[in-house]
Amino acid sequence: MLGMGMARKTWFGVMTLLLVAMSPTGAFAQVQLKPEPLDPDAPPFSVGEQPVQLGYIRLDQGLVTTLELHNEGDEPLTIQKIVTGCKCTTIDPMNPVVPAHGSTTLVIEHNPEPYVHGWTKQFRIQTVEKPRNWYSFVCQATCGYAIQLNKGASPRIADVTGNITAESIDQRPFRVLAVQGQPPMLQDFDPVKDEPRNNYVIQYDLGQDAAHGMALPALVIETDHPEAPMIAMTVTGKTLRRVLDAQPVSWRPHEDYLLLNTVEPGGPGIERTFQLQRTRTLPGETPELSIELSGFDGQASPLVADVVRVVPTPDGRGGEFDVTCVFRVKEGAAPGFVENVAVISQGAQFTQLPVFARVAGASGEAPR
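Above: the chain sequence. Below: its structure as tokens.
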């Protein structure tokens, strides 16, 4: 029995995930975890059919769900530890003592990575009665926006040209406003004549960008859906993905990119948090960081940013930091789509992070 609720919003996290392509079933096909050898002495638990399907998880909401853990044995069992293997997932039993032929409810909370992906994870349970023998089970889910991209296909772009499907989870009609800042190419849809609908086939062509070495790390789609104004798919493949001119020296961002959505010129700005991870041994103190932005073509950016706090992540062992910045648009900046790179520095050490935003026009919205 699964029950779903709301979880806190988060834009960072570390987890082991498995990404693959085609699935005829309408969800991302998942790489099958290599099953552990059957242990006849493992606690006689059961969670039903595996892998346990957790459904579709919104990136901006996360997931809280419950799962019944059954004790098939003749003796009560006491849960001593549950190992999730990642900081973005927690599992807590409502009652650690599982009676013989009874059950307890496991509360699972998952905060997904901030991009479209399929997720497969194995969890392990240790009991007081059998401390050397563990019970394990596998969960699967699909993680994405309020508009689901490429349902049943690859969550990443690896071809120069192709199609992307976009469908609202709540079946709400919406319009696709722009793709990478340009008018969208929509299959079998005329935005002038046709009414908005809840699904589209979006055509893309990265050939010109790839030929000039300018392909970006994400394909950004803007819509008028109130819960998905700016969404993206990660671009992969050596012929497509732009290699930033300067490589990280001592840090690397955990995120592939940041989406700021629409930002008002001269306004208070938008706060975003991302994670930096050390790539080599450095002094353990919290770093003093600065941030500057420029266009991918080296031109000046209408965006400015300030680092407001740097906090070590829980259990990060001094090597991971949550960095919170406020991004603002300069007064009088021209409206339009912005493709920027943020240079994050600590003295002579620096790294880079792509940033995408829409500078608001007179209406404060993306063009329609």
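The chain has three domains: 3-144, 146-243, 245-368.
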